């Protein structure tokens, strides 16, 4: 069976990405290893006292993200595709590539909004970083606004 790693960020295009990954998995007889990488600074806030860390904020956010990840996992399973999921904190590119290696993935499926140029300079592009550094094929699905 083909192993597919599917990173998700819970953005407004996540449903489109998941639907595309489901179709891809069906075509290649694949199973999906779903991953979400949460940033390490979730519980930090800045205010009059400078930077402060609030562990309860981090715990609540992680709990909410795990609920969302479980929903996506259930959606994939409902299409008769094997799926497992993982939530980790850290640098997304590094963790995704490490996870793909650990899972002996055949593909990483990512989405692209089609932005380029100045946007990448300021925001960066996880998909671009993954494709540049991956040792396995990266399938990039176009994710656009519905017109």
UniProtKB/TrEMBL annotation:
SUPFAM superfamilies, per the entry: Adenine nucleotide alpha hydrolases-like
Keywords: Cytoplasm
Residues that span the membrane, as ranges: none
Location (main, coarse): cytoplasm
InterPro entries: Rossmann-like_a/b/a_fold, Universal_stress_UspA, UspA
Cell location: Cytoplasm
Domain UspA: start-end pairs: 3-142
Family indicated by similarity: Belongs to the universal stress protein A family.
Name of the protein in its database record: Universal stress protein
């Amino acid at each position: 069976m083909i192993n597919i790693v599917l990173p998700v960020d819970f953005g407004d295009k996540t449903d489109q990405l998941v639907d595309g990954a489901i179709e891809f998995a069906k075509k290649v007889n694949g199973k999906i290893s779903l991953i979400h990488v949460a940033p390490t600074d979730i519980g930090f806030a800045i205010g009059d006292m400078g930077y402060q860390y609030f562990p309860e904020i981090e715990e609540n956010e992680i709990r909410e993200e795990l609920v969302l990840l479980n929903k996506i996992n259930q959606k994939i399973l409902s299409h008769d595709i094997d799926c497992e999921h993982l939530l980790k904190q850290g640098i997304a590119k590094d963790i995704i590539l490490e996870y793909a290696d650990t899972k002996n993935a055949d593909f990483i499926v990512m989405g692209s909004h089609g932005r380029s140029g100045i946007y990448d300079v300021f925001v960066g592009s996880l998909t671009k970083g993954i494709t540049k550094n991956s040792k396995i094929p990266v399938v990039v699905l176009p994710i656009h606004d519905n017109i």
